[in-house]
Amino acid sequence: MExxxxxxxxxxxxxxxxxxxxxxxxxxxxMDRPLYGAALRALPAGLALLALRRxxxxxxxxxxxxxxxxxxxxxxxxxxxxxxxxLPTSVASTVMAASPLTMMFIAWPLVSxxxxxxxxxxxxxxxxxxxLMLLGGxxxxxxxxxxxxxxxxxxxxxGHILTKRWSGDADxxxxxxWQLTAGxxxxxxxxxxxxxxxxxxxPPTLLAxxxxxxxxxxxxxxxxxxxxxxxxxxxVGLIGLLNPVTGVLLGTALAGEVLTVxxxxxxxxxxxxxxxxxxxRATRHTDRHADLRIDGHVDRQRPRSAVRPSRGTAxxxxxxxxxxx
Length: 325
Description:
The protein is an all-alpha fold. It is built from 14 helices and 2 strands; from the N terminus they run H-H-H-H-H-H-H-H-H-H-H-H-E-E-H-H. A two-stranded antiparallel sheet has the order 1-2. Helix 1 (about 1-30) crosses helix 4 (about 90-95), helix 2 packs across helix 9 (about 205-230) and helix 4 (about 90-95) runs antiparallel to helix 11. The longest helix has 28 residues, at about 205-230.
């Protein structure tokens, strides 16, 4: 259980960083350059991780990196950038909280992880909290922004479960680096054709891109995929509900967004959903007739007949040895 708690704490770094990313994107990054914004988020992050793990893909990981880079990075980052620009920080981050249910149902056929009742209950409670936060926000939300965020939920859930299925024992830093680099390379030529010259990067924008690339991408995706390897997809999806909590709190504290009583109730439901989805305590079934050994000694609780052979058995063994000789 302690090991699970450590993996949960490590995985939680990702949604907290992503919740802050909505605020940074909305406040400091150029609004009309979503493709360049996504490329400048992905490519530096991938190159930074490649500097830590100087390994090239081998075998199937060449095409797997391309597929995961396209899904998890190119398409997903562009959609997140658009939703971050069109929606308030609190709304943009809470729409993404629909991911637990999508991750659970996608994980069922792809990695044979059937959702537990506690995971489903936590996801439903969390979604109820999301609805409260969305309905309790000030002002009307952009329809295009909501659609972009919803598409990002579907794309990312599918891509994350594919990563869980394919990663196996592969080095997580290396595999994350490959897909981030591939996704960034896919985005650059498309951005050049669609958006023209790269945007200017004054110091505040450059610092914002450093946070987005290194913290909200390189670090966050590495710990997120590591959590997917060691925890059930349902648990990881519910940990992702910390994304809207962070987004709402930052939007209220730094962007001047109003936090209503209804949104506070929604936040409480989200946290309750995360708590419901925590990993179960491992149960150990001990057979009193099992061969328990401590420091090379047989446990005294084991019946003597199970520890030492009977006289007849020992005599038969000696006779067999004599005959073979």
